[in-house]
Amino acid sequence: MLSDGWQLTEDVDEFLARAGDFLRSRPGRHVMTLTWAERLRTRGAAAFGGEGQVFGVLERAGEVHAAFHRLTPRALCLTPLTPEQADTLAAHLVALGHPLPSVSADHGTATAFAEAWQRHTGATPKIRDTRLRLYRLGTLTPPEPMPAGRGRLLGERDHEQVMYWCGEFAKAVGEDVTIDARSWAGTRYADKRYTLWETPDGTPVSIAGMNPLIGGQIQVDIVYTPAHLRGHGYAGAVTAEVSRAALAAGAKDVVLFADRSNPTSNALYQRLGYRTLTDWATYDFALAAPDGG
Predict the structure, then answer these.
(1) What is the pLDDT of residues 127-182, one digit of tens each?
(2) Which of 17, 128, 193, 255 has the most CB atoms in a 10 Å sphere around its CB?
(3) Which residues lie across from 262 on neighbouring strands?
């Protein structure tokens, strides 16, 4: 037990027993912690090359106010925090000797924690990414007209196709990951269900994935169309199809992240019925250079 109500544990089941209801109460804003807690519960830290896992819950008078997770050595990921909560958490992690390479959260929380971490450690925060915007689906509005072709779920027989598309997506977004038959199970792509859009002659032209149903919510993650096939409405069609599949799977909420610097994709998601929930940010921490005297 930490002072001011923060409690840390390495046991994901204990974490979910304490924080599960809180996380599910606002699943959109808590999507990253919900998703990774479930991944670590079912597959363990070693499946993702991690050295361990730690979870935190801010609880006062029996009520949970915030939570975090971290897969070592990756970023600390936070639910929304007030500046006071961010400062208290930073102070506790410093006191416990927890080094941090980075923090990831909604923009306000990430900024508040980065400033607090600098105050307590002297580490200089450097913003790495402010491009991500989190959307939540309102009323699904499929494109009209849809491009020629059809959407279909991909199954086991499509495994090679799925790995190829995910590899192309990872390269397109600059993700440093190897995707092949050997590495597949240790990637974040392995637990998704994929929908493909194909032309009338069966040529695959666009793919979208969705994470498992967690806390009544499904995250659409990934959407990818090869550059030479863009501009034909395939991304809109496959996003509509995977969104419909998410709703059919029982999702009360459907969310997705989009790159704010890409006006085409943001406009597309908004036409389909997605509405802005929050913006996301990641800060890296670098220790201040020693004074050379």
Answers:
(1) 987 789 999 999 999 999 999 999 999 988 899 989 999 999 999 888 888 899 99
(2) 255
(3) none
